[in-house]
């Protein structure tokens, strides 16, 4: 079996979330499953529900994290956030990395869904790799506006190397 590495930017983002053993987490855009692997390794009684619009992203996440799927700690579905019906009553954390939805178009319905499902004290963590620095102010401004418009308290964090910006919305 090939050992898959976890990029430093994903490690940093997951560390920022401070995953607790009982957290219930939604990952939007699970891609190859690196974030899911790190999150699930920190969960005990908690669960991760990972979604991706891409069939290949779902397949890759399931293969990479088969032990967590088998243990019932991870559920992976091919679905769009707009049509998602979260299978848990409440989430403690929501995680997305390089999901452009939150800054390229109107996402009021999706952010309202998140606000409805995240417990008070919970948070939405949206991270972007800042490989085009001129886009960072727009990413931060539009994502922050979407989150604050739905009632989240917003803060911004940055990592210099690799360059990653995180927009955090606390409920």
TrEMBL record:
Domain Methyltransferase, chain residue ranges per copy: 25-122
InterPro entries, alphabetized: Methyltransf_25, SAM-dependent_MTases_sf
SUPFAM superfamilies, per database record: S-adenosyl-L-methionine-dependent methyltransferases
Pfam families, per the entry: Methyltransf_25
A Gene Ontology molecular function term of the record: methyltransferase activity
Alphabetical UniProt keywords: Methyltransferase, Transferase
Domain of life (superkingdom): Bacteria
Coiled-coil segments: none
Record GO biological process: methylation
Protein's UniProt name: Trans-aconitate methyltransferase
Source organism per UniProt: Nocardioides panaciterrulae
Organism phylogeny: Bacteria, Bacillati, Actinomycetota, Actinomycetes, Propionibacteriales
